[in-house]
Amino acid sequence: MSALLKLVQTEMRLFVRDPVSFTLGLLLPAVLLIGLGAVPILREPSPDMDGVRFIDYFAPSVIVMSVAVIGLTSLPAVMAGYREQGILRRMQTTPVHPVKLLAAQLIVNLLAALVATVLVVVSGRLVFDVPLPGNPFGFAVAFVLGIGAVFALGMLVAAVAPTARAASGIATVLFMTVMFFGGVYLPRFMLPEAVARIGDYVPPGVQSLLDTWNGDAPDVVQLLVLAAVALAAGAGAARMFKWE
Question: What does pTM read for this prediction?
Fold first, then answer.
């Protein structure tokens, strides 16, 4: 078994054993969607949303939440904690280079975000008959670019934060920003027009997810912005990342 695979298995066990990461990252988004769907009025077509049910409209925002929780809270705190505890420095003296630990963390958290998204889609479909993404390919592209941008920002935080506490503080600001523009705190149709338009380009790109969920094609400019954020933040994280 390769060293990377062993690290992935170890990091996966640590993720599952962490009640905060496991509950907030994997289960809370689906539970939130089911909880909102339990309110009868939210399952009725709304004239404010052109006859679309609130539960259908809100599903992409719950996906934003699941991606942000994992990419902007769990990942930066864990990596900064490893640096603070000297784990990365000690690994530099072993055949298992710390780059592999970084790769293992990214793999585990990407899998967790994917599982959380699947739970949201499946639970919404089975419990409340929430439609599946009408444009599956476009949704997949928007999701991949969006999650790439969020995780790159998370790694940038991990690269510059000297301690786990500092990483959590910086990541919390980013997390709240993503939640606000993603329509989690307040539905996007209730936001001022200028704020909603800014939110179109804030990772992970809730408008692209919403468009493709409804069967439309994603906006190319929005996708390009997500790709640019992923590349810029990823390059910055790789350049500034400190192992100790």
Answer: 0.86
